[in-house]
Amino acid sequence: DDDDDDDELPTVDLGLGSHSAAISSIANEALTWQPTSTVDDDFNDTASKPKTKRAKATTDAREAKRLQKEAERQEKAAAKAAKAQERVASKQAAEHAKQTAKLERQLSKAKKPEERLHQMTIHIGEDALQARRYSPLQQQLMSAGITVLADSNPRFDACLTFSRKHAQLDRATNTLTHEIRGEKQAIVLLEAAVFVPQSADASIRSYAKRLKDAFAEGWKVTLIVEGLEAYFRSRANKANRLWRQAVQEGTANGQAAPADTSSADRMAVEHVLVWLQMEAKLFVRLTKNSLETMEMIYMYTKAIATAPDKTISSNFNFCPHVDRSVKVDSKTFAGMRELWKKQLTCFNGVSGDKAEAIVQHYPTPRALLDGFAQQGLDAVATLVPLGHKHSLGPKLAERLHNFLTTDDPQAMTSN
Fold first, then answer.
1. Residues 294-314: what's their mean pLDDT?
2. DSSP letters along 45-74, please?
3. What angle do CA 85, 87, 92 make, to 5 degrees?
4. How far apart are CA 299 and CA 402, in angstroms?
5. What distances in angstroms separate CA 188 from CA 85, 125, 286, 335, 373, one per listed residue?
6. Which of 86, 305, 374, 403 gives a 20 to 30 Å CA spacing to 289?
7. Contact status, residue 293 vs residue 160, Cβ threshold 8 Å
8. Is 291 in a helix, a strand, or coil?
9. Among positive and negative, which fits the CA dihedral 283, 288, 294, 298?
10. Per DSSP, what are the bridge partners of residue 182?
């Protein structure tokens, strides 16, 4: 039967013997074992540590790379801004230089004589400006571009003073600044009808003193005396006219024609003119009439206007081909030899070396003249300058001989 067969299965001995119980016990424990949390956490930490370090290293590298790119970007932006700023500065400098050059051209143009006149202003006393004989003066000056102002409070009677509009370049702001500067120049007008009587009674001295007191030290005052000859001529004509009238009316009583009484006044005037210039230190100019006076005022104004562009006479070299002058001591005659050498170089074809050769043998013109008297032209013709192969020659000797011995002031010594 089936049930009986199942109940009576044979027992198989595996040879485990007494260990079967132990094995069974271990098997039961294995079936009931569960992992503890401590072991699991340690395992997870150990497995995740390498991944965390790699992630952190990657993040740091990315941040460093980002910062490097940001720094490079900022550096490029700064370089670009610096270049842009440099271009702007260069453009501004070019514009500044261009504007400066333009202003300098304006200043250079302002130095022309006609432009200089436009910068001048004449202050004329109202008494002179309103005088009938000077009525064309204002129009004449204004037509030349000169500003004319009526001076209600002049320094002196019939006085003219000058001022100039001065332009200056301010390089810091690149602009032209203008200011009015007074010129220490003055003109005083005086009629002969006033000047001659004052010269005769010596009251002109007090007039000159008042004139000097009206202007401070450093002023150049020019006194224009107008119509001096016309005044003497008019006075002589008046005396002759009265005499002719007396003759015609029969009241002359046999009197002769009046003698010329102006000679004494003329002499007094000449003395006064010398005194005004030598003692009073005034510049005196004589004019024939009002037209000549107005022309002189215009020329005087033009001279003042162009004065800044003229060379100072004390610094002007009349002999630009001469390197320097030679000073000779009047007691020891030191410098005479150098002066003689300089004089020889004035001859055509005589260089410094040739002059030195002559001076070594003939230190003075008298010595050279004696040499010509003793040796003839060979005194110079046979001299050989230092560093030269040829002698001075007879042509140069002849020119020097002719210069020292000729009596003809028209003789040519340069050929």
1. 82
2. HHHHHHHHHHHHHHHHHHHHHHHHHHHHHH
3. 95
4. 48
5. 62, 10, 12, 49, 65
6. 305
7. no
8. helix
9. negative
10. 163
Nearest to 300 by CA among 128, 117, 152: 117
In angstroms, the CA 204 to CA 201 distance is 8
Which CA distances in Å does 36 have to 14, 27, 42, 46, 203? Answer: 35, 19, 11, 16, 144
Under 8 Å CB-to-CB from 51, ≥6 apart: which residues? none
SS3 category, 308: helix
CB count in 10 Å sphere of residue 316: 9
Question: Tokens standing for 325?
Answer: 């002058």
Identify the CA nearest to 167 among candidates 214, 103, 254: 103
Instruction: Assess contact for 335 and 329: CB atoms under 8 A.
Output: yes
Q: Which residues on neighbouring strands pair with residue 165, listed in sequence order?
A: 180
CA distance 149 to 275: 33
Q: What amino acid is encoded at 100 in this protein?
A: T
How many other CB atoms are found less than 10 A from the CB of residue 379?
Answer: 22
Summarize pLDDT for 110-167 with one digit per residue, the tens: 778 778 888 899 999 888 878 878 888 888 888 888 899 988 888 888 899 999 988 8
Report helix, strand or coil for 286.
strand
Separation between Cα atoms, residue 191 and residue 128, nearest integer Å: 11
- How far is it, in rounded angstroms, from Cα 66 to Cα 78? 18
pTM for the whole thing? 0.53
Q: Which of 114, 99, 118, 96 is nearest to 167 (CA)?
A: 118
User: What is each CA distance from 133 to 127, 136, 226, 229, 284, in whole angstroms?
Assistant: 11, 8, 11, 17, 21
Residue length of the chain: 415
- pLDDT tens digits, one per residue of 17-28: 555 555 556 555
Q: Are strands 283-287 and 220-226 parallel, antiparallel or unpaired?
A: parallel
Determine contact, residues 185/220, Cβ cutoff 8 Å: yes
pLDDT band (50, 70, 90) for residue 16 = very low
Mean pLDDT of 100-111: 80
Q: Whole-angstrom Cα distance, residue 221 to residue 184?
A: 8
> What are 356-410's pLDDT values in tens digits?
999 988 988 889 989 999 999 898 889 988 888 888 888 888 888 888 888 877 7
Largest CA distance in the chain: 221
| 368 CB neighbour count, 10 Å cutoff | 22
**Which of 327, 354, 324, 328 is CA-nearest to residue 341?**
354
